[in-house]
Structures are given as C-alpha cells and as structure tokens.
Amino acid sequence: MRHPVVLAVSLAGAMALSACEQKSADQTVERAFQDVNVIDESDLNDVMLTVADPNEAVTYFKRTAADNPDRIEVQRGLATSLVRAKRYSEAAPAYAKVLKLEGATNDDRVDYADALLRSGDWARAEQELDKVPPTFETFKRYRLEALIADSNKEWKKADSFYETAVGLTTRPSGVLNNWGYSKLTRGDFGDAERLFGDAIRQDPNLFTAKNNLILARGAQRNYALPVIPMDQIERAQLLHTLGLTAVKQGDVQTGKSLLRDAIDTHPQHFEAAVRSLRALENNANG
C-alpha cells in the first residue's frame, strides 16, 4: 500500500527537477540573449556615431538615454551625436551630465570644453580645461588650449600649444591652418605664409589654407599666385581673393587686373568677381 505514496513522491521530485532544469535552461537562454543584445547595441551605437545621419543619431541616443540615464556610454553617445549634428548649445549640457556619472574621464572633460567653445562660451571652456591635469597630453586638449590662448592674445602660449598639438597628430593640416591664421591676425605675414604652405602640403585639398595663403602673400604685396595644387575654379577664386587684397592694400589697378583674370579663368560666370570689378569701376567713374 506504500507504493502509490512512493510513486507520487518520485513523480513530484521528477517534476520539480524538471521544472528546475527548465528554469535553469530558460535563464541560460535569457543570459545568452542579453549578451547578444549588448553586443548588438554596442555595434548599433558605433554605427550611429559614425555612418548614421547626425540628427537620426541624436534621436536614437535621446531615446536610449531616457531609458538608461545612468549608462555613461549612452549619455556620452548622445553628447557626441549632438556635436556631430552641430547642435553645440545642446551638446554642452549633455557633456556636463556625462561628467557627473561614474566612469567619466579627462577625455570627457576635454570634449565638454570643446562643446563649450563651439557654443561660444570661451570663458567656461577655459575653466574646464584648467581642471584637466597637465599630465593629460592629447592633440585635442592642446588644440583647444592654443585657440583659447589665441583669444586671450597670449601669443607665446598659443605658439607653444600649437607646436605641441602638431606633434601629437598624423593629420596636422587643420591646426597648422589655425596657427597660420593666428600669425596672420598678429601681422606676422611671413610666418603665416609658411604655416599655410605646410598645411597645404599636409592636405592639398584644404581650400581654406589656400585662401589664407593668398591673404598672407597679398598683405606683403606679393600678387603672384603660389605654386600649389589648384583646379580651374580654385584658381579663379584665389585670383578673386588676391584682387580684393590688392585693392585693400591700395593697389587698385593691380586689383582690377586680378579680378579680370579671375573672371576670365572661371569656367562659368563668376558673379562675385564681376560684382567686385563693377563696383570698383563705378567708384572710379563716380
């Protein structure tokens, strides 16, 4: 008569064991899916920060950040995507939030300073950079330090920071152009010309440096186009800049001649140069 009891206990034990095994299996599968989701989400974050449309990335990270307010990589992604979208006034407070989270780094503070600078708050940007230890040496940190020193007209500090920044990157064309422009604003036209030339050698497609080089040469009354890579449209645009620079220097006839060259060189109708030349001729006739 005891057999049914033993059988019932055995069945109950087997069912319990089966339930435990099922629960364990479910947990294993759930963990596996969680791991996959983490990997997928990490990949998606990277995609959003690189190839996605910047504003789409902002929408994605805003939604994700609202659900995960304490996850620093998500909040950092939101701040970075706002910078990519050129929404700097929103990026600055987003980086400020990142800095309050566990795991914030000196890179985050430099990025915060960058966003502040881009949004026009140079004073706060300088304050944030002052909080970064001097042993933290990165290209971005020194580039920002150079720009701020420039704005304060601290020329020796600016030159030192620019020089350090150039040595910390394999793509120095942009910072060389900034350094050259700093020299141009100070009236150091020879140094400016040299730095713009260095920038162009590093990046032959950097038209801003080409145009700045023309400004530096024109300021020295050197009205010959330099031997640099340029297509026909760029040549016309540079002749236009050179012509206007000549006029500013008081060399009006030279300026007119350069403007005519610009109009003749451009493969299409060069409206800006035409207007400049017409204004000069009307002024002379008046």
CATH topology of the largest domain: Serine Threonine Protein Phosphatase 5, Tetratricopeptide repeat
Distance between the termini: 128 Å
* Domains (count): 3
Order of helices and strands: HHHHHHHHHHHHHH
Q: SS-based structural class?
A: mainly alpha
Helix content: over 70%
Quick one: CATH superfamily of the largest domain?
Tetratricopeptide repeat domain
SSE layout and pairing:
Blueprint: H1 3-50, H2 54-67, H3 72-84, H4 88-99, H5 106-118, H6 122-130, H7 139-151, H8 155-166, H9 173-186, H10 189-202, H11 207-219, H12 232-248, H13 252-265, H14 271-285
Helix pairs in contact: 2-3, 3-4, 4-5, 5-6, 6-7, 7-8, 7-9, 9-10, 9-11, 10-11, 11-12, 12-13, 13-14
Explained architecture:
The protein is built from 14 helices and no strands. It has 286 residues and is mainly alpha-helical. The protein has three domains: 44-131, Serine Threonine Protein Phosphatase 5, Tetratricopeptide repeat (Alpha Horseshoe), CATH 1.25.40; 137-214, Tetratricopeptide repeat domain (Serine Threonine Protein Phosphatase 5, Tetratricopeptide repeat); 230-286, no CATH class. It is elongated and about 70 Å long.
Task: From the structure above, extract its key features.
single chain, mainly alpha, Serine Threonine Protein Phosphatase 5, Tetratricopeptide repeat, 14 helices, 77% helix, TPR-like_helical_dom_sf, CellSynth/LPSAsmb/PSIAsmb
